[in-house]
Amino acid sequence: MTHIAFIGLGNMGGPMALNLVAKGFSVAAFDLSAEALARLQTAGARAASSALDAVQGASVVISMLPAGKHVQALYLGEQGLFASLPKGTLVIDCSTIAASDARKVAEAAAAAGLRMLDAPVSGGTAGAAAGTLTFIVGGAEADLAEARPLLETMGKNIFHAGGNGAGQTAKICNNMLLGILMAGTAEALALGVKNGLDPKVLSDIMSKSSGRNWALELYNPWPGVMDTAPASRGYSGGFMTALMLKDLGLAETTALDSHAATPLGTLARNLYESHAAAGHGQLDFSSILQYFHPQD
Ligand code: NAD
């Protein structure tokens, strides 16, 4: 049986790890949050006391952490896991981080005799819970082949983007587009409502017209239009504005480094920056609606 160490049990990692447990994999889980850890333990995972404890006996390590600094702190340096993992261990980092950070971590993994994939995901918390995520993978083809049964337990589309870091580059392009689409969707809905339209009726119309997009159809930012969307539960439990801001910052850095023009990505980053500065950083990113339609 494959023994998996799963580190980072937040909005995404929690449901991803639960799916592995539900499919019968042996999972040792760790998170800094006792509450998140308890949810996994109740479902049948071993609750580890530290990341180092979680990896004991594991042949695969999966991490789902907020940002590059957390991933580097987990794996690199004298206290990092790479110093103690047995040679040949497969390490899959699903966090969204800079491609340059992913390559740095992969190089350190190779130097320690380990195998590393960057495998950021798309599909949101609903996709994580339903096991329908899209995995965008960078790394060696043979390592992806070995990881595939695990990824297929948590997702339905698995893409090989290229070598180490390529998964992150593709993910950043996707999330820059998502940030732009969500802001545009919120702007259009706010315009319609200001002019007397019902947000649900307008959403139905645009979903069947040329403005249709994922933010509108599956993650509608207007409260009450879609029961399952974070907007209908006070913008909680989804993809935090602070994380979208991180991703738009990564896109901007990538654009600067490669001399690419990304004016819409930059504008979207500024919108989310203002929104976060107004105190909404911990709310789901679809709360950008409040920038166009301030609440009382
Ligand atoms: P989150 O903040 O809900 O979860 C992160 C978890 O990591 C927290 O539970 C935190 O306690 C834990 N953590 C932090 N440092 C740790 C450490 N050293 N050891 C153990 N646990 C630690 O974030 P999330 O929404 O689950 O996002 C995770 C990653 O997935 C991010 O990179 C994000 O950009 C990406 N992502 C999120 C979504 C989404 O819809 N939420 C979608 C796609 C990708």
From TrEMBL:
<dbReference type="GO" id="GO:0051287">
    <property type="term" value="F:NAD binding"/>
</dbReference>
<protein>
    <recommendedName>
        <fullName>3-hydroxyisobutyrate dehydrogenase</fullName>
        <ecNumber>1.1.1.31</ecNumber>
    </recommendedName>
</protein>
<dbReference type="InterPro" id="IPR029154">
    <property type="entry name" value="HIBADH-like_NADP-bd"/>
</dbReference>
<dbReference type="GO" id="GO:0006574">
    <property type="term" value="P:L-valine catabolic process"/>
</dbReference>
<feature type="active site">
    <location>
        <position position="171"/>
    </location>
</feature>
<dbReference type="InterPro" id="IPR013328">
    <property type="entry name" value="6PGD_dom2"/>
</dbReference>
<comment type="similarity">
    <text>Belongs to the HIBADH-related family.</text>
</comment>
<dbReference type="Pfam" id="PF03446">
    <property type="entry name" value="NAD_binding_2"/>
</dbReference>
<comment type="pathway">
    <text>Amino-acid degradation; L-valine degradation.</text>
</comment>
<dbReference type="InterPro" id="IPR015815">
    <property type="entry name" value="HIBADH-related"/>
</dbReference>
<dbReference type="Pfam" id="PF14833">
    <property type="entry name" value="NAD_binding_11"/>
</dbReference>
<dbReference type="InterPro" id="IPR002204">
    <property type="entry name" value="3-OH-isobutyrate_DH-rel_CS"/>
</dbReference>
<dbReference type="GO" id="GO:0050661">
    <property type="term" value="F:NADP binding"/>
</dbReference>
<feature type="domain" description="3-hydroxyisobutyrate dehydrogenase-like NAD-binding">
    <location>
        <begin position="165"/>
        <end position="291"/>
    </location>
</feature>
<dbReference type="InterPro" id="IPR008927">
    <property type="entry name" value="6-PGluconate_DH-like_C_sf"/>
</dbReference>
<keyword id="KW-0560">Oxidoreductase</keyword>
<dbReference type="InterPro" id="IPR011548">
    <property type="entry name" value="HIBADH"/>
</dbReference>
<dbReference type="GO" id="GO:0008442">
    <property type="term" value="F:3-hydroxyisobutyrate dehydrogenase activity"/>
</dbReference>
<feature type="domain" description="6-phosphogluconate dehydrogenase NADP-binding">
    <location>
        <begin position="4"/>
        <end position="162"/>
    </location>
</feature>
<keyword id="KW-0520">NAD</keyword>
<dbReference type="InterPro" id="IPR006115">
    <property type="entry name" value="6PGDH_NADP-bd"/>
</dbReference>
<keyword id="KW-0101">Branched-chain amino acid catabolism</keyword>
<dbReference type="InterPro" id="IPR036291">
    <property type="entry name" value="NAD(P)-bd_dom_sf"/>
</dbReference>
